[in-house]
Each structure stands twice: as C-alpha cells, then as structure tokens.
Specification:
Layout lengths: L1 E7 L11 H4 L4 H11 L3 E7 L3 H11 L6 E5 L8 H9 L4 E5 L21 E4 L4 H9 L2
Parallel strand pairs: 1-2, 1-3, 3-4, 4-5
Helix pairs in contact: 3-4
EC number: 4.2.1.10
Family: Belongs to the type-II 3-dehydroquinase family.
Function: Catalyzes a trans-dehydration via an enolate intermediate.
Length: about 140
C-alpha cells in the first residue's frame, strides 16, 4: 500500500468559500473524501497550515521514509518562500507541486516557484483534479 501526504498552504482551508470562480465550490475536506473513496488502497493523509514554518515542519516530518510521495500546494508561499523550497530540496520523499489555478495565467509574481526546481513534477491549472493527477504520478 502506498502512503501519500497532501500538504496545503495558506488559505486553502477556505476552498469552497474563497473565490469560487477560480477555486471552485467544493471544500478540500469534501474533495479529500472523494479521493479516499476513489483510491481505497492508498493511505492519503492531509495537512494544512497558514503558517510557513509549520509547512516546513510537515515536509521534514513526511520527508524521510514515512510516505511514498508528497503532494504539495504551498499556495502563495510557492512564490515567496526560499525556506519551503529548501525543505523540498532537503528531504528524500519525492514531491509533486500542484496548483488549482493556472499560475501562469495570473499575476506575474505567480510565475516564479521556489518549489519547482526540486520537485518531481509540477501540475497546474486542472482545479482540484491537479491533486488526483499528482497522486496518479506516484502509482
């Protein structure tokens, strides 16, 4: 059985409420249940924080053998956090960077990622389906 950790950054706890035109109307909790139902033979764990250091701690805790893969949506920290980028570089567990929206169709500052250079891959712009595509990449 594969074990996958999904780590979500700031404001993703507001999915379903926040800018539904960009992020949709489904909460992440609701979506997570559909993922678990669709992949019953995969252990899927989820962690969310609005705090940069807590995300780094979660990456470090998940990054050395407990999980087969990490799906990371660092949200706005993707574009600002050297620390999160360094944490991804420092761990052994492969990381797939995901974004719900197409970051390249948005503001210029969202075109920069400190995560991407050390990620196994990057998936952007497929809505919540981006998470499922990332999980499939570990199968």
């Amino acid at each position: 059985m594969k074990n996958i950790m999904i780590i979500n950054g700031p404001n993703l706890n507001l999915l379903g409420k926040r800018e539904p035109g960009i992020y949709g109307s489904l909460s992440f909790t609701e979506f997570l249940e559909t993922l678990k139902d669709k992949y019953p033979n995969i252990g899927i764990t989820h962690y969310q924080s609005n705090v940069e250091g807590e995300l780094i701690n979660a990456l470090q805790e998940a990054g050395f053998g407990a999980y087969d893969g990490i799906v990371l949506n660092a949200a706005a920290y993707t574009h600002t956090s050297v620390g999160i980028g360094d944490a991804v570089a420092a761990i052994e567990t492969p990381v797939v960077e995901v974004h719900i929206s197409n970051t390249f169709s948005r503001e210029d500052f969202r075109h920069q990622s400190y995560v991407s250079p050390n990620a196994k891959g990057v998936i952007v712009g497929f809505g919540l389906q981006s998470y499922e595509l990332a999980i499939q990449s570990f199968l």
